[in-house]
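step: validate -> pass
step: tokenize input -> pass
step: predict -> running
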Amino acid sequence: MRSIVFCSVAGLMSLEPTLRTDHLVVRQREETYQVSGQSLTELADALRESRRASEGRGGFDAYTRWTLHLPPAPTPCRLGDLKLQVSIVVTLPVISRDTELSDADRLAWNAFAQALSDHEDEHLRLIRGELAAFSSRLGSAPTCGRLALETAMLDRRILRASALLDARTGHGANSGASLERFESRSSSGSAGGISTSSDPPKP
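step: predict -> pass
step: emit ->
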């Protein structure tokens, strides 16, 4: 089994909860964690604390993890009994129900959350495209050996494409993915525009 975590921000799933083809079974789910506060400053502090407390997110507010698992091939190998299992999990923050924000702060949080969602959708479309290409490369008459080879290549292709996407978008910063920047604009009285960075805060 190979599990890969790439730095990203989270959003709604673009894939169906379960996708099946002749050689693929894809399952995906979305997980959330709560942050609370009565202002953008308090929410930003809660996100920073969550980043410090969570070892698996790499200093980001949300992330996507995908896992590829190809069971051992039977002997003799029958391709119909062998399917690549793909699991995709997106984790993202939500504000707790007891959070009471001003209208301006609520709008800022919603814009921040939408930026996370938009960037994560890009990652999910990327994964969906790589899975479609995987099935296409197998062709109409694949072998067990070809399935194993293409699985290893799929792993590397997703990792490489995801890294390129994050490099191009600044991990979502180009479209907005840092509550600290919204907080800064709110405290300075600036209006309009989104300027963000998804770099983890310095201690």
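step: describe -> Helices lie at 40-53, 103-138, 144-169, 179-188.
step: cleanup -> pass
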